[in-house]
Amino acid sequence: MDILNLNEHFRDNMSSEYRAELEELLEEFKRGHYPNVLSKSADLRLKGDLDRELRDKLRMVEAISHSEIGEVKASSDIISELYHDSTIEWMLLGELAFMCDFKLARRILSSAVKEMEESGEMDRIKLARGYLVLAEAEENLEKYVRAIKYFKKGLTYFQDNEAPDQYMILYLHFKIGMMYSMKNEADESLHYLNKVIELAGDSNEELKINSLVTIAKTFGSKNENEKAYPYLQEALGLLEGSSLENKLSHAEALTEMAFYYFDQSKLAEAVPYYENAVNVYKRLSHVSHRKVGMVYMQYAYCLENMEQPNLREAGKSYEKAIGKLELTKDGELLENALADVIAFFDKTNDQKTKRKYENKFVELTNAKNAT
């Protein structure tokens, strides 16, 4: 059931004497007029002869409406009330709570799956869905061990189903692999992500690309760049013209390939990959300033030190790097970067720009000493 499909939720109530009011409320919800929904629902709940089931459903609609307009506390409070005393099943309430309060979602869904397990729930896909949403809540709470546990539970139910949903099986292998990656458990991550590549074929390109890039990053983090290289080659080939082109995965693949050459001191070969990576990062929002700053630093170093240096572009990249790193809270990283940039402008005899960054270095040092 689509938790936001109110027509489905209220289908059994349309024969009541309040059909006209319900139809009006549902139309307002469909149009996204959530304040009107809240007002009409509250008025309808004042009717003295309203049965409990309909009253609970109206409260549920109010919870959704509050969530949709960003009033998450109000939404969470209503869902919590319904969890403790209502006719609405816990599974549905848990999915609604996921929209506004991950901790509440975890509490409700834990109860829901436990109840379904104990009662011998016959709909295994429903049970699997409960574990999946519970796992997503744990993931958002950065409780990766529990997230892995619940993703695996969900995977088991999908695999055991009479008509297995191959996409969900593939997706869950990917999620589990990513969770292990977040926990820096490389071997487990590689196992699940390689399974994604094996199962993906040509019809699940996004999952395949993301798995290839994550595997490459995993090998890179272990300083096994030669093992990373074929995954990067395949990923970059698939990225061109795909839905992930110029997205974060693309930038990461380009960065990893650039570092593959950087690490071997093949600086000229690294430059075009760094150049393309920074061009992709420019298009993205909510990217780590630290990550982009370090990419600019490495790009600048390559431009400065390759056989045929491009000092003008190197200087620009060093300055962009400092601009990004100043937005981080890592004073030590910024201090080291400033030292490198000062050395560069001293070497290129650009005293004006050198003094600019020397002043920044002094300000940073004074601020550190003052604390």
From TrEMBL:
GO cellular component, one term: cytoplasm
Similarity comment: family membership: Belongs to the Rap family.
Primary localization class, coarse: cytoplasm
SMART domains, A to Z: TPR
Species the sequence originates in: Lentibacillus persicus
Lineage: Bacteria, Bacillati, Bacillota, Bacilli, Bacillales
Tagged with keyword Repeat: yes
Residues in TPR repeats: 251-284
Highest taxon of source: Bacteria
Record SUPFAM superfamilies: HCP-like
Protein name per the record: Tetratricopeptide repeat-containing protein
TM region(s), chain numbering: none
Any matching Pfam family: TPR_10
Cellular localization per UniProt: Cytoplasm
Keywords: Cytoplasm, Repeat, TPR repeat
Repeat listed as a keyword: yes
